[in-house]
Design goal:
129 residues, alpha+beta, 7 helices, 56% helix, globular
Length: 129
């Protein structure tokens, strides 16, 4: 088997949909018994004393998590397709049906709140983390 370079791997990942990439990350974590979020936690713990409390107060990146689609699933799917660029109808439907799932990750507070409002208006249950 030919060894792939980092650039080859990145090119292959660029062709995946958000859901396919998410599934790959889960399988990667299971296969190698690692967690993709671990480096972030280590970096936060390595900061000076008192920094974690300050980081919580100054949080500027949020994740928009779809907790449940609610009664108006079709409306929620339409909003998810609006919010996540490049998502096809099937991928958006799969994402909504597999709730709870993150819809947007690492977005600014105002963008996260706007997305949350749109999703809730469509009938979904949403949380920010």
């Amino acid at each position: 088997m030919a060894k792939l370079s980092t650039d080859d791997l990145l090119d292959a990942f660029k062709e995946l949909t958000l859901i396919e990439l998410s599934e790959f990350v889960k399988k990667f974590e299971e296969t190698f018994e690692v967690t993709a979020a671990a480096p972030v936690a280590v970096a936060a713990a390595a900061g000076p004393a008192g920094a974690p409390a300050e980081a919580e107060a100054e949080k500027d990146e949020f994740n928009v998590v779809l907790d449940a689609a609610g009664d108006k699933k079709i409306q929620v799917i339409k909003v998810v397709r609006e919010l996540v660029s490049g998502l096809g109808l099937k991928e958006a439907k799969d994402l909504v049906e597999s709730a709870p799932k993150p819809i947007l990750e690492g977005v600014a507070k105002d963008a996260a709140e706007a997305a949350k409002a749109k999703l809730e208006e469509a009938g979904a249950k949403v949380s920010l983390s």
